[in-house]
Amino acid sequence: MITARTQPPTIPRVVLLLESSRASGRDLLRGVAQYAHHHGPWSFYWEPAGLERAWPLLKTLDADGIILRDVEKVSEVLASGIPAVVVGHSRTEIPGLVNVVTDSQAIGQLAAEHLLNCGFRHFGYCGLAQSGIERTPWSQQRGESFERHLSQAGFPTAFFASPATTSKPAKVPWPHERQHLVRWLKSLPKPIGILACNDDRGEQLIEACRAAQFLVPDQVAVLGADNDDLVCGFCNPPLSSVAIGFERAGYESAESLHALMLGRRSAQRKIIAAASHVVTRRSTDILAVEDPSVARALRFIRDRKQGPISVTEVSRAAGLSRRSLEKRFRSSLSRSILGEIRRGRVEHIAQLLAETSLSISEIADQLGFDGPQHIARYFRAGKGMTPREFRQRRAPA
């Protein structure tokens, strides 16, 4: 049994059972460290290697609080009475604890919107199968959200079904699963946009495309989730990915744990790692639009996202009258030319908010808006929140 200290210490001792092999874990740790830097000091015991391997040692520690992934022995934490925050991976939310969960609904929605905006009309989802050692409710949730938003737009989704296995451990060897992925890819209509449940799966999907001799993104566009720079950069071509605010979630986890260690009820019983935007890299950098005039118009809009442009300018670049281009736009993309201009501008603002330290006023000046109030109204109309609110969803408080 892990035991808690009977007396509150001068410096709390916090145990961290969070892996650091992926950017999501490192960002969570970074957020915890950021909170402790401003509200500590705290003393940490961190086990980055094997979570299960750490349990025998943990029984000897005087822990005042713990932040951990939902490993099999999480019930021991509940029994110990130690204030705890659990980062979800293989389970749904655990009653009685503060839970950190990724926003699978938003991940599916952002992915669907991104691939629709690339002009695709065929879509697929490549998740991870449930097995004895790999329970992945988050993968299923991301796929369901992706399918739901595409269905609302009038398009079906093809799902990859991982091959079953009865071996122990119940995990299909990658060379065998790659063969199944290749067969699945060959069965799909092209061009197609596919969401992978995370960046690791996206890397495997790109490898399977190479084995099947399909060009990425020309025939198969691949989108991941988590935006792990290292994994995305190793892919060939580099992998586009949905960015998720794990650092903010780490900060809020530490904030909740602090309240629990002080004997207060945490204000947050569920902490959301919010999905904010898609970081576009070469794996989805394509306009899958058959109409050449619409493709020219889209290219013109995307090349001029730094400043305001008019519908007349877009029509002229496409070589068509405004009326004719509007009809083709609605037929190809189910939206107007002005709607596409605004959508592209809003996404570019979101990218600058998420990936730079530019102030909102500086972004407004750079993009040709009449000050921060103008850009805030414009952004809210597209995203349902102000630029400040959008930035706060990702950054530590």
Description:
With 397 residues, the protein is an alpha/beta fold. It folds into three domains: 3-101 and 246-275, Response regulator (Rossmann fold); 104-244 and 278-284, Response regulator (Rossmann fold, 3-Layer(aba) Sandwich); 292-392, Homeodomain-like (Arc Repressor Mutant, subunit A). The protein is built from 16 helices and 14 strands. The protein has helices at residues 23-39, 51-58, 74-80, 104-117, 137-152, 174-187, 199-211, 229-234, 246-261, 292-303, 311-318, 322-333, 337-355, 360-366, 372-383, 387-392; strands at residues 3-4, 13-17, 43-46, 62-63, 65-69, 84-87, 98-102, 123-126, 158-159, 192-196, 220-225, 240-244, 270-273, 275-279. The strands form three sheets. It has a six-stranded parallel sheet with strand order 3-2-5-6-7-13, sandwiched between helices. Strand 5, helix 3 (74-80) and strand 6 form a beta-alpha-beta unit. Helix 1 crosses helix 9 and helix 6 (174-187) packs across helix 7 (199-211). The mean pLDDT is 87.
